[in-house]
């Protein structure tokens, strides 16, 4: 069954079961000489798996320098490395071709585990499969759920983007909203398209229009959203897919004289403050710290004890929601860079 065909309770159950396994494995005995199970990827390739190789992992994402979201992923991965005594290198590049080269470099450098986000899976396919064939276990995160197993990864950690978007659309529909703009800030990112498709599905009879902007040009983001709201004054909901875009959407709505409610995916301190002030109605939280932290735990367990997680299903970190009911609880964690 496809990810979109599964019910939300089933996905939640899978996530809870997976996290329970993480906790159980972390408290159990290690077996450094254990051989990972056959056919699980990352060792099922052309090169024999070496259980004695050092734990030297690379996290390679499609994030951009200074992006608030990916800095939290990085914090999670590096914290896991410190906690577990594992060498962790974090690198990122928003260009798919450049990201593929980073994966190739990690293989050439002899990294013994890879964590890769796949916003543009086709561009990374050959590089990930080469890593698997070199006997390196790969865990995908954040994007590319549907292609993870195909490429030979042992697991995927993240959020089901269609279902998260669906939940956001349902929230707006329940609030009586009828016309929504879904703001896509990164062209070619399949996960963002899935979010908007899900929002459209969850919005029911409401109308959803996608608006393409460029995350690298904040002034243009604000101008495009403001222009869309002025052109379509009946729009009463704006869904952004990035915490940094959310702030621009709030300013744009005010500049357009629009009463449209703004919601967003992902958190930072500014978003939480805007939620507390009533300028943003909610944020979809995929808890990206876990997308950095958990894969390092999983790779260590795989290399030392042959453990895998998920049973062929993604290990879910979201969606959760932050609104005025829990913003005060979450804010200290955004300040320290873990939410």
Automatic annotation (TrEMBL):
PROSITE patterns: PROKAR_LIPOPROTEIN. The keyword Signal applies. CDD domains: PBP1_ABC_sugar_binding-like. InterPro entries: Bact_Solute-Bind_Prot2, Peripla_BP_I, SBP_2_dom. Residues 1-24 form the signal peptide. Residues 57-302 form the Periplasmic binding protein domain. It is found in: Cell envelope. Pfam families: Peripla_BP_4. Residues 30-52, 320-339 are annotated as: Disordered. Keywords: Signal. The keyword Phosphoprotein does not apply. Its main location: other. Gene3D superfamilies: 3.40.50.2300. PANTHER family: ABC TRANSPORTER PERIPLASMIC-BINDING PROTEIN YPHF, D-XYLOSE-BINDING PERIPLASMIC PROTEIN. Belongs to the bacterial solute-binding protein 2 family. This is Sugar ABC transporter substrate-binding protein.
């Amino acid at each position: 069954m496809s990810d979109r065909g599964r019910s939300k309770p089933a996905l939640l159950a899978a996530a809870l079961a997976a996290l329970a396994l993480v906790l159980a494995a972390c408290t159990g005995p290690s077996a450094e000489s254990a051989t990972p199970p056959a056919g699980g990827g990352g060792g099922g390739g052309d090169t024999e798996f070496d259980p004695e190789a050092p734990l030297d992992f690379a996290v390679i994402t499609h994030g951009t320098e200074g992006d608030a979201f990916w800095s939290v992923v990085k914090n999670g991965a590096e914290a896991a490395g410190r906690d577990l005594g594992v060498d962790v290198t974090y690198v990122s590049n928003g260009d798919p071709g450049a990201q593929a080269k980073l994966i190739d470099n990690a293989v050439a450098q002899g990294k013994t585990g890879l964590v890769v986000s796949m916003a543009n899976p086709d561009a990374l396919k050959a590089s990930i499969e080469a890593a698997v064939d070199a006997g390196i276990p790969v865990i995908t995160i954040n994007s590319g759920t549907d292609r993870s197993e195909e490429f030979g990864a042992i697991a995927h950690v993240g959020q089901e983007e269609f279902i998260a978007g669906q939940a956001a659309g349902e929230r707006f529909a329940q609030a009586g909203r009828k016309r929504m703009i879904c703001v896509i800030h990164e062209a070619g990112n399949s996960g963002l398209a899935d979010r908007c498709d899900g929002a459209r599905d969850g919005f029911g009879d409401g109308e959803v229009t996608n608006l393409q902007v460029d995350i690298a040009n904040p002034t243009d983001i604000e101008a495009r959203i403001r222009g869309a709201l002025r052109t379509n004054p009946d729009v009463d909901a704006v869904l952004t897919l990035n915490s940094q875009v959310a702030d621009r959407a709030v300013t744009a709505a005010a500049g357009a004289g629009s009463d449209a409610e703004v919601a967003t995916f992902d958190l930072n301190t500014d978003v939480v403050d805007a939620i507390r002030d009533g300028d943003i109605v909610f944020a979809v939280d995929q808890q990206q710290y876990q997308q950095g932290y958990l894969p390092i735990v999983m790779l260590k367990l795989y290399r030392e004890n042959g453990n895998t997680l998920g049973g062929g299903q993604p290990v879910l970190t979201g969606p959760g929601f932050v609104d005025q009911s829990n913003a005060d609880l979450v804010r200290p964690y955004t300040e320290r860079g873990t939410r």
